[in-house]
Write a sequence for this structure.
């Protein structure tokens, strides 16, 4: 999942730095992720993983780092399995 | 009949607003305009000494700048574009025929012009300032007023499709522009008190479109980027935003290439007065006849 998220981030994140240089825990907003790019990333992740972010996870925190995104996606996938 | 409709009807009956047959598109009486003019003088009295550079743009803006602003990403549902007939004589004949028969939409062949209706008074400002080159060390302070268009037809007289927005826009460092915003939040409360209006200030969000917009809303609120000064007009439980205080971080600075003297990207903030809403709040609170308003309010507005 980490790889896929990194690919999408490279594609729609519009970051001024190469995604490979970012640690999993690096602050993506500090790295230059704009508000609008985070929305693009959210939509790309939804499509790729065939999931829908619930309203309570549509916030900055969910997209703050690559590991935060992984955790959020994992949480959504888990909730879907449980459902 | 709900409260919004009845207040609108009272405004029509009193002649303060003039019905045009379209919800949210109204004429204004002399008395209504007099209140707006008086309130704008009050704004001048409070903010005049700050030395803002005044600019007035018509209520249409360059379509290229509108496109660059990204408005369609966030608020496609509110935008209004200006279209015109650009055909030849033959096209004119079919246009007239189409209008006469009335079965088809005669506007379908209208072509987009280079003009888009201004969605907020400050939109034409950013590209104008960017063209001048770097901002001076002291930053920039601008005074704007324009009719603005938002496509949201409603019976609520406080939600008009064409309305006036008076704005101050500040450009500079983060500290500079957030201080400016705080100053106007304090001033706004004082100003409204001085004309006898009950106000609260609350964190707010713009009406971003769709699910993606939900995330923009959450981001905006989490970061306290927008505050509104609220006054009861058509509802006490949902008071109306009559002023807004917006901190754009460096997003407009980056988008438009607004840089400070040292080359760093400018932060920006704007403070907007919804002039019709403030006039409506005054009429709602003090009654529909300005001559009967409390003496202290009249003195503040008309001296």
């Amino acid at each position: 999942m980490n790889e896929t998220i990194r690919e999408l981030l490279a594609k729609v994140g519009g970051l001024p730095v190469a995604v490979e240089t970012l640690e999993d825990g690096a602050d993506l907003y500090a790295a230059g992720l704009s508000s609008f790019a985070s929305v693009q990333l959210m939509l790309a992740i939804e499509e790729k993983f065939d999931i829908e972010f619930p309203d309570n996870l549509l916030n900055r925190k969910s997209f703050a780092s690559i590991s935060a995104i992984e955790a959020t996606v994992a949480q959504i996938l888990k909730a879907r399995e449980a459902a | 009949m709900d409260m919004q409709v009845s207040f609108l009807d009272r405004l029509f009956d009193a002649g303060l607003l003039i019905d045009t047959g379209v919800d949210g598109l109204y004429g204004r009486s002399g008395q209504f305009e007099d209140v707006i003019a008086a309130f704008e003088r009050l704004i001048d009295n409070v903010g005049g000494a700050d030395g803002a550079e005044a600019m007035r743009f018509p209520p249409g803006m360059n379509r290229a700048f509108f496109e660059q602003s990204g408005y369609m990403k966030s608020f496609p549902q509110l935008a209004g574009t200006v279209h015109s007939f650009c055909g030849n004589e033959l096209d004119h004949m079919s246009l007239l025929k189409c209008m006469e028969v009335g079965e088809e939409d005669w506007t379908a062949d209208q072509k987009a012009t280079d003009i888009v209706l201004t969605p907020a008074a400050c939109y034409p400002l950013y590209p104008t300032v960017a063209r001048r080159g770097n901002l001076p060390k002291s930053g920039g302070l601008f005074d704007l007023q324009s009719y603005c268009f938002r496509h949201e037809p409603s019976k609520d007289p406080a939600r008009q499709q064409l309305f006036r927005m008076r704005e101050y826009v500040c450009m500079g460092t983060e500290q500079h522009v957030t201080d400016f915003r705080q100053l106007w939040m304090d001033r706004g409360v004082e100003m409204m008190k001085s004309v006898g209006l009950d106000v609260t200030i609350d964190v707010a969000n713009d009406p971003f479109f769709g699910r993606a917009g939900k995330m923009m809303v959450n981001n905006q609120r989490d970061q306290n980027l927008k505050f509104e000064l609220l006054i009861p007009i058509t509802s006490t439980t949902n008071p109306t935003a009559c002023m807004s205080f917006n901190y754009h971080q460096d997003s407009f600075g980056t988008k438009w290439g607004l840089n400070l003297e040292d080359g760093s990207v400018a932060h920006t903030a704007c403070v907007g007065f919804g002039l019709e809403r403030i006039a409506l709040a005054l009429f709602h609170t003090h009654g529909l006849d300005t001559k009967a308003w409390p003496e202290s309010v009249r003195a503040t507005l008309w001296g």
